[in-house]
Amino acid sequence: MQDVQLLLPSHDGLPTLDEQQSIHEEAVPTAQQDSELNFDLPSDSNNQFSSSTSASNPGNPQTTRRASICRIKVVDDLLAVFIDSSIMNMTLKMDFVNEKAIDDAGVCREVYTAFWEQFLEQCEGETERVPRLRPDFSEAEWQAVGRIWVKGFVDHGVMPVKLSVAFILACISGIDSVDTDILISSFLNYLLPIERSDVEKALEGTMEESDQ
């Protein structure tokens, strides 16, 4: 999963990792490298962002970014965080707005889970869901969805299992890895139950004249 190339250049005007380190080192003495840099995302959402750099290992700083996510706007807020491709190289800590929690890892998993629950509601299909093209989603937003998928899985093991199996396999291994059996199975699970039954009969050659 870490070999999947999903990163795009940042278009949101946020400082790069090197720029953040440089700004931080100019702002505080070396002995106080745990202080935070705060900046706002150019987003309509109310998510809150901060970035801190720790110099426990000189020359190889580890950057942590914090984000507060509104539960009812989790899709928009998380997309605003992941529009910046540099997020993939950072430790991401998240919480829900106006909700206090201690377990960072558990809260982060809940954020990713809530994202996929809301995102899948915007997809199409029955047993298996397929993302649909949206006029308000550009390539940048779809790249952000890909980053959320990868980082949520790598960091916390969160996988949107209700997505179409054929779609998941195509994203991870390429379209050529999807054989006919997998494609037909995913297509049947995409259909409404009554439509699925008719298609299965047609494939088996047992369709009645009244169903044709």
Question: Explain this structure to me?
Answer:
The protein has 212 residues and is of the alpha+beta class. It has a domain at 17-163. 42% of the residues lie in helices and 11% in strands. It contains seven helices and four strands, in the order H-E-E-E-H-E-H-H-H-H-H. Strands 1-2-3-4 form a four-stranded mixed beta sheet. A hairpin with a 7-residue loop joins strand 2 (48-54) and strand 3. Helix 2 packs across helix 4 (139-156).
Biggest sheet layout: 4 strands, mixed
User: Gap between N and C termini, in Å?
Assistant: 44 Å
Helix/strand/pairing category: alpha+beta
Rg estimate, integer Å? 21 Å
> How many helical stretches?
7
Q: Order of strands in the sheet with the most strands?
A: 1-2-3-4
Strand content: 5-15%
Number of strands: 4
Low-confidence stretches: 1-17, 19-49, 51-61
Q: Helices and strands, in N-to-C order?
A: HEEEHEHHHHH
- Name the overall outline: elongated
Overall mean pLDDT stands at: 77
- Helical content stands at 40-55%
